[in-house]
Specification:
By secondary structure, the protein is an alpha/beta fold. It is built from 20 helices and 26 strands. α15 runs parallel beside α20. The chain binds fructose -6-phosphate.
């Protein structure tokens, strides 16, 4: 979603801002813009519909000088993607330029009030209303910018991360946040602003994450100052970021998505490091150990998440119920938050989110916490909003995920959920030593088996050519592989724009079987497990109706492989860990089909990496 970058220091701001916007491109956007106060003290604002490269083109012959600036990539919410709706928005006085992520919910009321005062609006955005409101308060009260921002934000209902500069004061940027992330990087006599840490890492590793209703004053030559709405100065917590630049670059791969698929064995190794102790027949997620009484005695677990993270949650349910015998329900965060859910003391809510910023998941967490539930977060982005609003949790430690389609985060989430279930089962005593030993040994072998699964890449690339022009796909799986079928279908939809549906295989005869004909590719996840015979029947049913079966089977399979049209063989593992392998060929297939179709794999249309609006 929208991205914010800002710079104040002694270097040329423009190249830093453009590079920062490019680092944020992965979030998804439709227009871009920049505001700079030039060396000759002009406020220069440039905006384009489309890509950051377009912004570079239109500014080639323009004055982009200046050591203070703010820049933005917009993902349209209020008003279509267009140059006029792009940020920064400039106030009626022509002095203030503002960029904003989030949604001002009462913008209509504020707009009417401003119109009565004579303000007119060029764009359809809520952001323009915000800059005019600040302008009005500043000009009518003859106030300084900080006071005007503080007073304006008191009138605002909604979510925002904003940065504003004043042409009359080329030494200051003011930023503020509520329910939308904002990070400030602190360098030597310079500041960097960004909506996540990725644009900042190459300049400094010292950052401050703003909290809700924080207003920060960045002033040239002075230390960072943060105040609340009443202008009371707040203590700063300067943190060190652990990201490195290599993690943010493609490292020779044509797309981030492919890089992220291929690095999964290493990511899973990192995720397990220090947690899995096969030699001691033990697995330790410290958050579980620290809160074991609360967790063991939970009435039930409620997993809340969206999209791919929700699919991981479905696997989590099976893992926790299987090993811990605690009832688990899995909810879409967006439904949960508006369903007046029965949730309260004694419930443990597990919030799963790669970005840690998904608006619906965050709101669901807040609702559950207010009703007395204990909140456990499973996130990737360190320091993001969800981990900061939970009681405890575990990071998945798979490194930054840049490709919009989630891949390594999914396998990281499943890995953490498996470790969570096993740690809890160990402290609860609901798993035997021998069962634990078997699964831990398999767990340790997963990264190597993932490497074998990745060796199917060339076969899948060839297969993808055959199916590039398919109009529909069905994905079937059962048990632990049912959520993998959903995830495979989602991956294909997202990046190749082919319609795809995932089903529990046995549900097929309750409706979807009507779709099967010679045109319909059906991906069946049929590895060797307790449901293999059932899947065999499902494959026979599809073949009887002339569907084209792509079967994901275990090495050495000699039954389904004989009936299916195409077979992809994977190493065998224990059933609960199977998703960590079966997901890989489905990710690769979505990737290669999208490449064959010439689609923008890393930034698919209409999608955002971090969905910070509901
Ligand atoms: C799919 C995908 C999305 C996200 C969803 C939740 O590839 O990336 O479905 O899984 O938007 O995002 P997080 O996990 O950041 O809360």
């Amino acid at each position: 979603m929208c991205g914010i970058v800002g710079y104040l220091g002694s270097r040329d701001a423009f190249p830093i801002l453009i590079k920062g916007l490019k680092r944020l491109e992965y979030r998804g956007y439709d227009s871009a813009g920049v505001a700079l106060i030039s060396q000759t003290n002009h406020l220069n604002v440039y905006k384009v519909k489309g890509k950051v490269s377009g912004l570079e083109q239109v500014t080639e012959r323009e004055d982009t000088s200046g050591t203070i600036g703010i820049a933005h990539t917009r993902w349209a919410t209020h008003g279509e993607p267009s140059q006029v709706n792009a940020h920064p928005h400039v106030s009626a006085s022509g002095q203030l330029a503002l960029i904003h992520n989030g949604i001002i919910e009462n913008y209509n009321v504020l707009k009417e009030k401003l119109e009565k005062k004579g303000y007119t609006f060029k764009s359809s955005t809520d952001t323009e209303v915000l800059v005019q409101l600040i302008d009005y308060i500043k000009e009518s009260g003859k106030l300084d910018l900080l006071t005007a921002v503080r007073l304006a934000l008191r009138e605002v209902i909604g979510a925002y991360a904003l940065a504003i500069l004043d042409h009359n004061d080329p030494d200051q940027i003011i930023v503020a946040r509520k329910s939308s992330p904002l990070v400030i990087g602190i360098g030597e006599n310079e500041f960097f602003i960004a909506s996540d840490a990725t644009p900042i890492v190459e300049f400094t590793d010292k950052v401050v994450y703003l909290e809700d209703e924080d207003i920060a004053i960045l002033r040239r030559g002075e230390p960072l100052k943060v105040v609340d709405f009443s202008n009371v100065e707040l203590n700063l917590e300067v943190q060190t970021i652990e990201l490195n630049l290599g993690q943010l670059e493609k490292g020779g791969y044509p797309h981030f998505m492919l890089k992220e698929i291929v690095e999964q064995p290493d990511c899973i190794q990192d995720c397990m490091r220090g947690r899995l102790h096969v030699e001691d027949n033990n697995v330790i997620l410290s958050a579980i150990i620290d809160h074991k009484e609360k967790l063991i005695h939970a009435k039930r677990f409620i997993i809340i998440a969206c999209g791919t993270s929700w699919h991981a949650g479905l696997i989590g349910r099976q893992l926790i119920e299987n090993y811990c015998r605690i009832p688990v329900q899995v909810e879409y965060a967006s439904e949960f938050r508006y369903s007046n859910p029965v949730v309260g003391e004694g419930d443990v809510v597990i919030a799963i989110s790669q970005s840690g910023e998904t608006a619906d998941t965050l709101a669901a967490v807040e609702l559950a916490r207010n009703r007395g539930a204990f909140i456990y977060g499973i996130c990737n982005a360190v320091g993001s909003s969800i981990p900061r609003s939970t009681d405890t949790g575990s990071y998945i430690h798979v490194g930054p995920e840049i490709g919009v389609a989630s891949t390594k985060a999914f396998t990281g989430q499943v890995t953490v959920l498996a470790m969570l279930a096993l740690t809890l089962a160990t402290v609860k005593g609901s798993i035997s030593e021998s069962e634990l030993k078997e699964i831990l040994e398999e767990f340790q072998a997963i990264p190597e088996k993932m490497k074998k699964a990745l060796e199917t890449n060339d076969q899948i690339a060839s297969l993808s050519k055959i199916f590039t022009y398919a109009r529909n796909f069905i994905y079937l799986g059962r048990g632990y592989n049912y959520p993998v079928a959903l995830e495979g279908a989602l991956k294909l939809k997202e990046i190749s724009y082919i319609h795809a549906e995932g089903y529990p295989a046995a549900e097929m005869k309750h409706g979807p079987i009507a779709l099967i004909d010679t045109e319909m590719p059906v991906v069946v996840i049929a590895t060797q497990n307790s449901l293999y015979e059932k899947l065999l029947s499902n494959v026979q049913e599809i073949k009887a109706r002339k569907g084209r079966v792509i079967a994901i089977v275990s090495e050495g399979d000699d039954t389904i492989s004989k009936i299916a049209d195409y077979c992809i063989e994977l190493p065998k593992t224990v059933e609960p860990l199977d998703p960590l392998l079966t997901t890989i060929p489905l990710q690769l297939m979505a990737y290669h089909i999208a490449v064959c179709k010439g689609k923008d794999v890393d930034q698919p249309r209409n999608l955002a990496k971090s969905v910070t609006v509901e």
